[in-house]
Design brief:
Layout (H helix, E strand, L loop, with lengths): L3 H27 L15 H19 L3 H26 L2 H10 L2 H14 L6 H10 L6 E5 L5 H5 L3 E6 L7 E3 L12 E7 L7 H11 E12 L12 H11 L1 E7 L5 E8 L23
Helix pairs in contact: 3-5
The chain binds S-adenosylmethionine.
The site of S-adenosylmethionine has 19 residues, from helix 4 and strand 2.
Length: 293
């Protein structure tokens, strides 16, 4: 498993960008002239020199003593980073049923996972959930949506549609806590089913089968997945085979958005009528593990 290669690259990009950003802000203070040439300034007076020396000495003194709280914060961050990676690996390597039991017994771990997840996502240049939210905003607000593996329920918080938010733990009364292979939603009741980076369990096909059950004929199935999970060059699944399996279930691929560096977004539509195909072969989706930063 190694999609973190992508994640790590994005993080490195983020770090570089931050360094470059720091440089820009320093230059901004030094050189207010638009010509790019620093304006000449008069030599400092002896009084100003003394004051500068005093300032430097006091800031040096401050710099020598690290604040104990910052050290503790760093240690806490390292521990919670490790905890996040452990939970992430757990979610990618067990069934949805086991994940549901695990998080039901330890609901606090859900926060640990999502704090780490948000940190990882902050390094992505574009968040797939935002692309999906914008897509929904461009379509009918009367559509009913099911957000499978909703996380912090960003979709329901940002659109006017009626949204069924589903996840392993419910910290908000609007979120349905269940294993998304078996939701309480009625058959043929939703217009859009979303999986935004949530096909994590080893039994992921059963999640898509559940979406098929709850979707109305003609309904939309949106799947955003980490790019490296669907990149045969890095040990990922063949995206053609992935789409073929979903087609056999009774969907047509309308479009595929592959322009983002970190994820691919598939837009399928459920056929009005389709033959039931038994024993569909699903490609293995490798887990997306994050490297330690
Ligand atoms: C990587 S997070 C993405 C969250 C959200 N979709 C987003 O894009 O911000 C995946 C989410 O899927 C949830 N999930 C994974 N397997 C699940 C299952 N079997 N049933 C319900 N939720 C599941 C996880 O708990 C997690 O909140």
């Amino acid at each position: 498993m190694e999609p973190p290669q992508d994640a790590a690259a994005a993080a490195a990009g983020g770090r570089k960008r931050r360094r470059r950003g720091g440089g820009r802000s320093r230059r901004k203070h030094q050189n207010p002239s638009s010509s790019g040439v620093a304006a000449a300034s008069p030599p400092p007076s002896p009084q100003a020199k003394r004051q500068r020396g005093a300032d430097a000495a006091s800031s040096k003194g401050r710099g020598r003593k690290p604040k104990p709280s910052s050290l503790l914060d760093k240690m806490r961050a390292r521990l919670s980073g490790g905890h996040f990676r452990m939970l992430n690996e757990k979610l990618y390597t067990c069934s949805g049923e086991d994940a549901f039991e695990y998080f039901t017994n330890e609901p606090d771990l859900f926060d640990v996972y999502h704090t780490g997840y948000q940190e990882q996502m902050s390094h992505w240049p574009e968040q797939p959930v935002n692309v999906i939210i914008n897509w929904l905003k461009g379509h009918s607000a009367s559509w009913t949506v099911a957000d499978f593996g909703c996380g912090n329920a960003a979709v329901s918080k940002n659109v006017k549609n009626k949204v069924f938010s589903i996840d392993l733990v419910s910290e908000d009364p609007s979120v349905i806590a269940c294993d998304m292979a078996h939701t309480p939603l009625d058959s043929s009741s939703v217009d859009v089913a979303i999986f935004c980076l949530s096909l994590m369990g080893t039994n992921y096909p059963s999640y898509i089968q559940e979406a098929n059950r709850v979707l109305k004929p003609g309904g939309w199935l949106l799947i955003a997945e980490v790019r490296s999970r669907l990149d045969p060059n890095t040990g990922g699944a063949d995206p053609e085979k992935f789409c073929e399996s979903i087609n056999k279930l009774g969907f047509s691929l309308v479009t595929k958005d592959a322009k983002n560096k970190m994820f691919i977004l598939f837009y399928f539509r459920k056929k009005e009528k389709s033959k039931v195909v038994k024993n569909i072969e699903w490609p293995h989706l490798k887990p997306c593990l994050y490297k330690r930063r």
